[in-house]
Amino acid sequence: MSDWFFKQGGRDRIIDWLSLDSKIDSLISETLGRIRDTWNSLTSFFARFKLTGWKRLANELACESLTLGAGGLIILYALALPAFQEFDESKYQTGQFAVTFLDVNGNEIGKRGILHDDAVPLEEIPDSLIKAALATEDRRFFEHYGVDFLGTLRALIENVRASGVVQGGSTLTQQLAKNLFLSPERSIQRKIKEVFLAFLLESRHSKREILKMYLDRAYMGGGAFGVEAAAQFYFGKSVKDIDLAEAALMAGLFKAPTKYAPHVDLAASRARTNEVLSNLVEAGFYTAGQVHNARLFPAKIVEHVNPESPDWFLDWAFEEVQRIAKGKGEYILTARTTVDLRLQKAADEALVSSIKNQGRYMRVRSGALVSMETDGAVRAIVGGVDYGRSQFNRATSARRQPGSSFKPYVYAVALEAGMRPTTTVRDRSRSCGRWSPKNYNGSYGSGRRIPLQYALAKSLNTTAVELSLSLGRDKVLEMVKRLGVSGVRKTCSMALGDGGVTVLEHTGGYATFANDGKLAKPYGILELVNSRGELIYSHQRDEPPAPQVVEPRVAEDLNKMLYQVVNAGTGGRARLDFTNAVGKTGTSSSYRDAWFMGFTGKYVTGVWLGNDDFRPTGRVTGGSLPAQTWQAYMSVAHTDMNIPTIPGLQPHPTQIAEMERLAYLRKTDPNYQAQANANSQTASLLPVATKKALKALATALRKANGKEASDDAPADPKDGAEKKPDQRAELPSRGEASKNSLSR
Predict the structure, then answer these.
(1) Does residue 190 sit within a domain?
(2) Are 153 and 145 in contact (CB under 8 A)?
(3) Is the CB of residue 351 less than 8 Å from the CB of residue 366?
(4) 13 shares its domain with 133
(5) Residue finishing a domain among 270, 296, 322
(6) Which of 354, 371, 404, 624 is catalytic?
(7) Does 137 qualify as catalytic in the annotation?
(8) Which of 137, 194, 373, 505 is catalytic?
(9) What is the pLDDT, as a whole number, of residue 739?
(10) What is this structure's pTM?
């Protein structure tokens, strides 16, 4: 059968296998041949580029350079990206607003913004001032491209020789970049950002534009920004009319205006001016003979009735004015503010003296303080130790971990859920993932049941975390949002204050409790009047009534618990003998941040102490230096016994006794009212005497507190009233929170 099939050609009629095999072999052979020919032609073409000897070495070097260059560009981009993210053109635009500020009593206290009629073109600024600035700050300004590598190397060598910082390597462009876009922290990251931002400024602006911006934006002391404002402040005339001696004095202010300002330290100012005159000669801009008269006849300063300006407050108030006036079409404004200069000065002195007297020993170099009325009217803002050295406002812009001072927000949620100060909870640690909170003594809780107010007074971390987890962390987030506090994240340790908050917002959150649960949003502007005298904004008229964001019962119960913190807990050093004081201490992990937040019936004040570079302090807790600073300020802030009662508390016995005494005098002495009015007028005319008397009161109070229980006294589990000093129990030294828990 099969033979017949093949004989008949059946196999060929279906598939010609031999022909197909031949074609496949032929195709493969032809393809390989073509590939071989192509390869031979290519190798023959590139053979002419084959290098040997020095040419090959040069080629290898070029290739390696390209590789390293590409890698370097990638690294540069990675370093430059954070700097470019800081760049914001709106920050170096002078803006349109020109605002004159008045204090709460209607007295002029300062100005912010650039007056349109006073802007002086660079061509009209005296040559002597420009040369003095360049000779002192950046002699190669017109030769470098933002960064003077030769100048930096020279400064580095001089500093090594002197074993200290005697010369700076920053150019004018770098200084402008730092002032406009960066914080004052001393770090490698900030320096890298400064370099790239300097390059960016040089690429976008001419040298003349950069020089003009520097002269217009530099802080010159006395609340004056820019050379025109400084000339008006120090000499009472336009910068166009200053002479060489005055120009040298102003050029010396760029480095440290507070240190070299003539109304602060005339001797240091004269020495700095002579140094600038010497720089002019060394740079070749003037001869020794030309500067001789300027040395013999130094600049004369005009007298100022009140050279001290509440600059920290004004900077924040200027931002508030711009926010309020946006879209109104009015730019030349007069703003009446809430600031009280007496309280502002007391706040400055309390914070600065605390850091200067004890900061070195306790490794604390920075701080901030905010004080306001219970409705949110801000009376004082201190954003740092030295405004001349750094204008970064740590009170309104810096976000730091609040530590245990955050816990009242958690306890407010517990009170809203139906708990009371005497409700018992268990002191035990509850895990969240792999993390478990510890108390300051290192334990995971005693396991016993304790009153809620006792847990807050002792600042137990275990209880705070347990409450936040059992009640719901979302409810805690909702609470802080209601109170106007931002920057809080949902984490396991959020109850221990691991997020970043500002002193201003944190103080406003506490003010709501002092305001019986009504929202106390911080505000600083009472009225805005345009250049025609028309009222365009009034806080009383244009702002809605404060909403009730926390039930009065909750605020009152929490105030009772905060009273126990001060009188029988970790905040003992904040106690006031003439009125009730409530509050909470706070310390973040590694002792980087120390807080005391508290209030009386009249003022709510928040104090933060720490370091700008986030270095740990010398184990400073919220119950130590911050509480002492708070107590020193509040002792001076209250000038009489006319202090409202804190919601939820009874009037202080001292206040009751004083009010009874005054009432008796009004009834029995017909001349009492006239004498009281005369004393009131005399007190306003004699601030020095008043200040001395208040300081004496604060000293006496501090001595009295030193004899009483420490800030580590145990909380009384009972919701008790005032106790006599000799009845207060002593606490073992335990503190506020665990060493590993971001909170104390």
Answers:
(1) yes
(2) no
(3) no
(4) no
(5) 296
(6) 404
(7) yes
(8) 137
(9) 35
(10) 0.63
